[in-house]
Amino acid sequence: MKVAKLRPVHVREWHSKLVKEPDLHLTTIAKVYRLLRSILNTAVEDELIDANPCRIKNGGVEHSTERPIPTVDELRHLADAMPSHLAATVWLAALGGLRKGEVLGLARRHVNLEDQTVTIERSLQEVTGSGSVLSEPKTLASNRVIVMPAPLFWVLVDHLEEHVESAADALLFTNSQGRPVRASVWSKAWQKTRDASGLHHIRFHDLRHLAGTLTAQAGGTLKEIMAALGHTTPSAALRYQHVAHGRSRILADRIGETIE
């Protein structure tokens, strides 16, 4: 359909079909709706249409439920159940806050053992017809340097020694042929790991929630959480500070002890 022929009724019908799709989460539908609305706002600015036909009240509002945050014990179980050459992916997500594509795009040169840092400057993505492709990270803020907590540092020391070639550009995670790990192959290993450990409810993205929560509980500011996780807006980072509010009693007690 030509953009100029789009009417509010068409958008409502399309949105209604999405809502009825059993495999689509309401959060995803809200994001898709916001994208269409943004595209059509540009069409209005370019005078291709007179008005934006996206007029569904609260159509772009997300009503996502609070995701469970894995415990450190659950993290350890998941890492132990993964194939040994992929176990470090769990630790990088949970203690470094990396996205899956960012993890799989890492090379030896991105890990600085002397400074105990990991540099994120690219991401491994699956492109239809092209397979695995190394590309720019999700956003400009995704280009960042992560300072490793001690547990992550020692995991990577062992991983580099056991599973990574000596060349600076050698990928941290490869298949038996030395090629990048395909998303489908990784997903099968992850699903098998969750089944083996009995932690079916934990998604890989939940590991990033753990990283954000630990940063907030350690006293990280909003900007520090955003920098660590590569967020461009405060909204996502705020959830971790909300979780950290559970430490209010501990902090208040410490203040009291200081005054005494």
Structural write-up:
With 260 residues, this protein is mostly helical. The chain folds into 2 domains: 1-65; 72-210, Intergrase catalytic core (hpI Integrase, Chain A, Orthogonal Bundle). It has helices at residues 8-20, 26-45, 72-81, 87-96, 100-104, 150-163, 183-197, 204-217, 222-229, 234-244, 248-259, and strands at 111-112, 117-120, 123-127, 131-135, 144-147. Strands 1-2-5 form a 3-stranded antiparallel β-sheet, with no helix packed on it. Strand 1 and strand 2 (117-120) form a beta hairpin. The longest helix has 20 residues, at 26-45. The chain starts with 7 loop residues before the first helix and ends with a helix. The mean pLDDT is 86.
Short description:
The protein has 260 residues and is mainly alpha-helical.
